[in-house]
Here is the input.
Amino acid sequence: MEKDYKDTLNLPKTEFPMKANLVQKELEILDFWKTHNTYQKMQEKDKSNAYILHDGPPYANGHIHIGHALNKILKDIIIKYKSMKGFYSPYIPGWDCHGLPIEHEVDKKLGSKKGEVSILAKRTLCKEYALKFLDIQREEFKRLGVFGDWQEPYLTMSFQYEASIVREFGKFVEKGYVYKGKKPVHWCPSCVTALAEAEVEYADKESPSIYVKFKVKNTSKFKNTPLTSPLDKGGLRGVSEIYFVIWTTTPWTLPANMALSLHPRFMYRLVKTPDGELILAQDLIKNCMEKIGYKEGDYIITESVWTGSELEGIVCRHPWIDRNVETIVGEHVTLEQGTGVVHTAPGHGEEDYEMGLKYGIDIYAPVDDKGCFTEDVKDFAGQNVFKANQEIIEKLKNINALLGSAEKITHSYPHCWRCKKPVIFRATEQWFISMEKNNLRQNALDEIKKTRWIPAWGLDRIKGMVENRPDWCISRQRAWGVPITLFQCKKCKQIITDKAVIDNVVKEVEKAGADVWFEKSVKELLPEGYKCSKCNSSEFSKETDILDVWFDSGVSHAAVLEADKRLSWPADLYLEGSDQHRGWFQSSLLASAGTRGKAPYRAVLTHGFVVDGQGKKMSKSIGNVISPQEVTNKHGSEILRLWCASADYREDMRISKEILDRLVEAYRKIRNTCRFLLGNTYGFEVKSFETSASSVEPLKVKGDLLEIDRLALSMLQHLIEKVNRAYENFEFHEVFHSIYNFCVTNMSAFYLDVLKDRLYTFKAGSKERQAAQWVLYNILLALTKMMAPVLSFTAEEIWSFIPKNKEESIFLTSFPEVQPEFIDKELEKKWENLSSIRDEVNKALEIKRQQKFIGNSLEAKVILYVDEENYKILEGYRTFLPTLFIVSAAEVVKDPNHPEDSYKSPLISGMAVLIDKAQGNKCSRCWNWGITVGKYKDFPGLCARCHEVLTS
RNA sequence: GGGCCUAUAGCUCAGUUGGUUAGAGCGCACCCCUGAUAAGGGUGAGGUGAUUGGUUCGACUCCAAUUAGGCCCA
Here is the structure.
């Protein structure tokens, strides 16, 4: 039996497990970070060199979903990278605590008791609810390996934060932005309350469908127009009655009709009918005439045609009210239904309202909070609007304003989520922040231009929104939020804008939270003896509405960036999903631009949404939801982190079982590469190493390196460069792909494979082997550090296996920088050729392997038949070729006439590869074949090289 | 319906200012190894560049429309 020489080899040796067992191991590492205060230690830096990423607060409701995980992990990657780059880069997570969803949950729990509970008691329940989920989410975020000051987050419901909200609101009041106006909201007449969009459910409802004509007051405009078609000899000149025709399903909104909307580019035509000359969109004529009940021949379509724009500003008369109604134009008009002429009641519709604002029309809504007409509406005062529908139709019929007869249609209509009854849209008094005051809109637009948007199209998106948005409606008729802290004089209705009054409230809120507004009386909240500056009255009322929660989070720049000593203003980066262009990015911008004239951020980065493997959005009903908890429990958070870095977040990110499986494999490959590096740096003297790696004796080490070692180092520098650039540009998928490719291609399949012979069979302390280890050590350090921001758990684990005498955590080390002295362009160029020759040899070997001529490549001898040019390339490497090809022998023959059985390279002209069996016998130690095997009596199974190693 | 965005192999990504037969890794198939071993190596097969039109000597790259999808509005 042949002696086993395995013990004489330097095989890899490491305790670092191949199997990650992430689900368990991550918990240990989290514990390590906790007990060693790793995050805190990372903050012990020069604060003047800071990189501030300001956290956008998630809503403290429910468990985190995959989108939350993506967002927090991306932030974490940046924070860790910047920190390792030497920046003071703290992360203060925050939570958005006020708002409707929490209030709803509390209402739900209260059930029938809802009405009996005081506002303060309810607010307490809301607070408890928010705290509960804050804790849950905090644990879930920490479990993902996200670093941050989790012990001291910011909460929009903390006293300090609430005081900031009141203070910032006060600034808006002082500067004159805040005004009271009317805006239509969903209103439930049965519950007598305003409803938020989320409280509205859509259900089918039967409504009347009617066509109504509006008489043109002055037809002179038309008299100058050639109205008559050749077929219509009578012409229009004798006609004095011209009407616009509208269609509506809410006759009750007609008393509030203030305008008729046309589309600026649609074509409108005049139609002669027994009921007069009607104007409507030409594409809808046929349909309307049918619906109204005319038969063909009953009406004549004239040649007269205009665009909506041409018809703008025509004065009409309301069917029965003494009111002029003008035609206006808007893009919201469609040709899907109706007449192309839209009845517009700014007090009863969202688009109508927008049009009203645009044209300066009164936002008129003569309907009270129980859904009944007010005294304003003479004929129908006191009537419920839905019940009044029929009477209004009768009225229209009587005054001959109704075309055809009323029909019934069933359509989707908003209903109250609580009482399930149909709701109405009704203008109510609301508080607004003016976009025009102090040039807020323009100022915000200027700041948008100064901000770096990543990706760049973010600028266009938010710009368009800010350009077109209406004034900011900041009031909500709710309980769970920060009150609009305004007083009104009961006598003269003056709103108090005194700074002293506001400051006083801020102080109160600082002490006791926003609850104080509801707890204390007006007198207690006002400075003592305060009197109205206008009428000297001392009787005031306090506002009961609360602020829009977007105002809450919008002022985080003041409440957190400015106020928190750990941070500074403005932030270097805001990073959220692309939905926040309308949300937080905008509210923050307006809140900051309105009070400080500047954006609160230097750069804004957005990521896409998480979708399923088909690119469809995740939804419970489809059942394609993947939760972060699921991934963590099955594969480990590390895989989720890797997923965040693997895909391009600027687009929507897909996640599926297959994608995760691929990532698990990629993870294993990276892990195993590091494990091999660890195993082969075993026994290496780190200290002497580091000395010689420093400037003390660099040349000596460099001189010991083989060419392939220097090549590997050069390749490493390129990787370092690429990875640095990718992190700087926030292109983490580039980080992942380059590191991964480096592990697979440059290391595993090339350098490490070639190196095995030297590492295993050379003497442990030989300078060749030491040189290789030195390179491996450097690669390992660089790789581990570079992956740390993404694969934080694994990097920390690897770090703990790297011979010590250094930082306690990988996150306390500094990020690898390119060392230009190790870049060797010339060498790379030479090796490009060698590398492609190696590829061709592999092809030749494969053919022989498939033919069962050889198995292991060491059984082969390679003979290269080359031309002059290739000979020059190979000449200097003759002795190294067997190592490079991982075969037992290699010859280079300068002869363009290749033998028959050889593989003629299609890629490299002038080269053929002949594979022969290696001569001699297989060395039992190094497995290379050679004629020296058997020569030595003391070790008959060894080749000369191994004999030398064992006997010297 | 509107604004913004996306569409390259089964998967994740590259593709320089429009210029030869569109690249990588994974996965897959086949083979080798059994001294990185629930590892490692090799070879190979996979693409009508969403579709349709246009600009151009020439388009994955520029433009338009369509389709599918995403976010935000309506």
In short: The first helix of chain A runs from residue 22 to 35. Confidence is low (pLDDT under 50) at residues 227-238, 691-699 of chain A. The first strand of chain A starts at residue 53 and ends at 54.
